Amino acid sequence: MVRFILAVALMASAAHADEMLTYTTDQSFGDVTFGVENAILNQGLVPENVSHVGEMLDRTGADVGSDVQVFEAADVFSFCSASLSRKVMEADPMNVGFCPYDIFVMQLPESDEVTIGYRAFPEGPMQEVQSLLDTIVKEAIGE
Q1: DSSP-derived secondary structure for 80-121
Q2: The whole model's pTM is what?
Q3: pLDDT by residue (tens digit) across 118-142?
């Protein structure tokens, strides 16, 4: 019985962690990505990587037998905070699985809206990371 309760609790936590928290804006994709980069830098952090997911999907579509345009544009910004990462991983070393932290910006084809967001994190120490991501996202779009 204890295993079942633990499994249910873990599944509920995992489901919450798979949720995406998003904001939409009528700002241009370029303005939002510029805003994300600056908001990350304003936190004293450095974007370690920018994955141009939309460009990759466009470039590889024919190679995998698809002609579907998924995004007008889509980028994912990855970064880490040494102090915050240390704090959450000292609380639970398994939090390593959440690092680096990602913020995505996407625009769907034929849409004037740009969506910006990040993955929700489980309750506990990772909520501090979620708060940081929310601060960065809101700054990026001027909220």
Answers
A1: --HHHHHHHHHH-GGGGGGPSEEEEEEE-TT-S-EEEEEE--
A2: 0.85
A3: 999 999 999 999 999 999 999 999 9
